[in-house]
Design brief:
By secondary structure, this protein is an alpha/beta fold. It is built from 10 helices and 9 strands. Helix 1 links the parallel strand 1 and strand 2. 37% of the residues are buried. One of its GO terms (biological process) is fatty acid beta-oxidation.
């Protein structure tokens, strides 16, 4: 069909570890280089969770070299997915905080399972950290400045009906209709000539892509200096503790 489905399967919660990000980029590159492949649907093989975002353990108590390597891998994922020539559809079949939301934002179209228990958003502020400009830029591109400003400052995780209302996701569907809907949307996008769609996509995304490329090294240094602050490390440890307590 010319359409690939990439299913995230990294138990327990599809957190974006260095390994996950590396494998993701390799898989995407393979599809990108496969001339027969024109579109990719991103979804999760783990029930109720699309992705829990960046793996917090990669950002806690590690060396400066590790932080640099990890952050470069996050940037790489962002650049490859946002700059993909393929049609990219996120079939969001579960909760999708922070980096999980980012993956969906990087796609051309977002369909989410209609379940008020699932939420999506850039909740970094709740962890005591700040989403970098390249997370913010594409959030603004999708939902507009006012909604993005409020949502980012409050670190909001939007339940599905709200996510749809603010335009963070394009459509809500019952769980059993998700794959069918994703395939239908993909067919609609693939009905156009590739070159016209690709040039249009690249025109719309160029400014954001160029901005990260131009500031990549500086952004890695910013990340390292921020993440190695004791106050930030303490916030992240407390957040992980909170996740564990919630469980017990
Ligand atoms: N990283 C690492 N481990 C995680 C993460 C994560 N993001 N999320 C969950 N886990 C772990 C939990 O600690 C738990 O571990 P254990 O079994 O050892 O206790 C295990 O995964 C299962 O988690 P839950 O019991 O919470 O699973 P639930 O099914 O109840 O809930 C959720 C799943 C909804 C995904 C929930 O785990 C959750 O809300 N997780 C946190 C999500 C989050 O806030 N992620 C933000 C990550 S930060 C980010 O992506 C962007 C950072 C930008 C950097 C800015 C520069 C400084």
């Amino acid at each position: 069909t010319g359409v690939a489905t990439m299913k995230f399967r990294s138990p327990p919660v599809n957190s974006l570890s260095l390994d996950f990000l590396t494998e993701f980029c390799i898989s995407l590159e393979k599809l990108e280089n496969d001339r027969a492949c024109r579109g990719v649907i991103l979804t999760s093989a783990i029930p109720k969770i699309f992705s829990s975002g960046l793996d917090i353990t990669e950002m806690c108590g590690k060396s400066m070299e590790h932080y640099a390597e990890f952050w470069r891998a996050v940037q790489e994922m962002w650049l490859r997915l946002y700059g993909s020539n393929m049609v990219t559809v996120a079939a969001v079949n579960g909760s999708s905080p922070a980096g999980g939301c980012l993956i969906a934002l990087l796609c051309d179209y977002r369909i989410m399972v209609e379940n008020p228990k699932f939420s999506i958003g850039l909740n970094e502020a709740q962890l005591g950290i700040v989403a970098p400009f390249w997370f913010k830029d594409i959030f603004v591109n999708v939902v507009g400045h006012r909604v993005a400003e409020r949502s980012l400052q409050l670190g909001s995780l939007h339940p599905t009906p709200e996510a749809h209302r603010i335009g963070l996701v394009d459509e809500l569907v019952p769980e059993d209709k998700l794959q069918e809907k994703a395939a239908a949307v993909m067919a609609q996008w693939l009905a156009l000539p590739d070159h016209a769609r690709q040039l249009t996509k690249s025109m719309m995304r160029k400014a954001a892509l160029d901005r990260l490329v131009a500031h990549r090294e500086e952004d890695i240094q910013n990340f390292i200096s921020l993440i190695s602050k004791e106050s930030i490390q303490k916030s992240l440890r407390m957040y992980m503790e909170m996740l564990k307590k919630k469980k017990s």
